Amino acid sequence: MSTSRRLLVEGASDAIGFLAGALLGYGIGYVLGLDLFAEGYDTRSIFAIALVGLGGGIGLNLARRWRSARAPAAPKKQ
Questions:
Q1: How many helices (H) and strands (E) does the chain have?
Q2: What is the pTM of this model?
Q3: Which residue in 51, 9, 12 sits closest to 32, CA to CA?
Q4: Dihedral, CA atoms, 9, 12, 18, 22, nearest 10 degrees?
């Protein structure tokens, strides 16, 4: 795989993983009744922000694991 194609796949998979995780975190917060866009920073808003950040981080980590699992194995040095 060429360098530019590898970088494109890396960037796109990172972005998709982060976005999917952040949206899932937002959805979980919404179901729990946490308002991410509330006036001010009350406790419920802070928990909603943390869920979105946590979801985005987990999604990014899963995207990187998926990409490394698909990568061809490097030849072993003897």
A1: 2, 0
A2: 0.82
A3: 51
A4: -150
